[in-house]
Fold this protein.
Amino acid sequence: MNRAQVITNKLDELQENDYRNGFNDCVLGYCRDALNEFDGSGEEFWSAVCCNRMGEVLREFMDSDQNLMDYFDEVSSMAKGPGAFEMPAWGTKGT
């Protein structure tokens, strides 16, 4: 098994469960946790995605597989769909 397979397995699981983002979890977070369990590289993955270093993400974590990157984006978009957590206005603007 390698990092790309770990990510693929996690994405498959989230898609099969029709996952929606919660208050404190998201697709990126689940993939980070799976990579941390696999080889401790989850924080690197998180940082690379958050800093928009997508070339590094593709090379280092997805075996240069653009289809996997597209799948990650697809599952992330699905998770933001109907039923996903949305911060109420008072949560971002103060009370």
In short: The chain has a mean pLDDT of 94. The two ends are 48 Å apart (CA to CA). Residues 3-16 form the longest helix (14 residues).
